[in-house]
Amino acid sequence: MLASMNHQKVRDQMSDAVVRVQAGTPFKEIAHLLQEYDITAVPVVDDENRPLGVVSEADLLQKMWGELREGEDETDVAAASAKARATDAAGLMTSPALCAREDWSVVDAARMMARHRVKRLLVVDADGHLIGVVSRSDLLRVYLRSDQAIRREIVEEVLVKALGESPSEVQVDVTHGHVVLSGRLSSRTAVPVLEDMCRAVDGVVAVEYRPLRAADPDGP
Fold it and tell me: Is-contact 102 10, C-beta < 8 A?
């Protein structure tokens, strides 16, 4: 059931205004682009607009760091030394580029960012062409969903459609993304499933279930 949740897609959150460079773009031109557009990295693409890698501020700063960085193994030092000598995007970029498909869910993209400890992913279409960039801040926009939209999805998609529960038996209250469920479910085993499915709804911060007590004969 959890896999059926309809998370927002990467295409809904990404930025499609992407500043990009090619492998032969000179060092100083890249530095000017980062400053002009107030960005911290640019994707490097081939002649068919397919991502080759990414040049970040950190890559450019290898000119200053050179081989003086401590605590790295020989492979890291060799890579840093090569970037310190590089004069164009091909030599400066970190590759291969980490990419997300436009039809990925925001959860899939967030997991990949966390796994690889990166701040952004390049977004490609089915043919591998660069169409956008999605960042951590883009993904966090799901938490800007209104409480009303969250409650509507829980009632209509989770309670009724997925679990077959009656909305008259379960009260759903949402405040600042905090979901409080109260009432009676058809079985006790449905409680953890309901809680997990609610946590999987985009924009939910926390979920709390309050069973109806015997002293509350009327219920919600």
Answer: yes
Do 110 and 36 share a domain, yes or no?
yes
Q: How confident is the model at residue 74 (pLDDT cuts 50, 70, 90)?
A: low
As a whole number of Å, the end-to-end CA separation of the chain is 26
Domain boundary, last residue among 142, 176, 202? 142
pTM: 0.74
Same domain? 69 vs 134? yes
Q: What is the dihedral of CA 122, 124, 130, 131, to 10 degrees?
A: -100
Residues 187 and 111 in one domain: no
| Identity of residue 2 | L
For residues 110, 111, 114 and 117, what is the CA-based torsion angle, rounded to 10 degrees? -90
Query: Tokens in use for 206?
Result: 């926390």
